[in-house]
TrEMBL record:
One of its GO terms (molecular function) is RNA binding. Residues 102-115 have a biased composition (Basic and acidic residues). SUPFAM superfamilies: RNA-binding domain, RBD. Residues 87-100 have a biased composition (Gly residues). Residues 81-115 are annotated as: Disordered. This is RRM domain-containing protein. Residues 5-83 form the RRM domain. Keywords: RNA-binding.
Amino acid sequence: MSDEGKLFIGGLSFETNEDSLAAAFGKYGTIEKVDVIRDKETGRSRGFGFVKYDNAEDAKDALDAMNGKTLDGRAIRVDEAGKGGRFRGGGSQGQGGYDRGGSYRDAYDSYGKHQ
């Protein structure tokens, strides 16, 4: 699957699910796929996810409109998936893309390109 049109969404509330993420981002274009990344053991959200648009221009519109906006009570960060940058994700130290020093690239490498 091409990365074109795929966005990384960081800072998600633990209450945000695929449906609410799709509802928030769906107004910018046709969405191909939505993923909220969850802990394998607990099923709890990791606080980030991905939205893949059919059209890369729609993804850019969504990025421009939604970056820094509030979703389910939390300010979210939106970036192109796999483009790098830093995020303030939660989680345990020493788990690559999940520690506070992780990058979008780390999280994407762990999950995004396997979706």
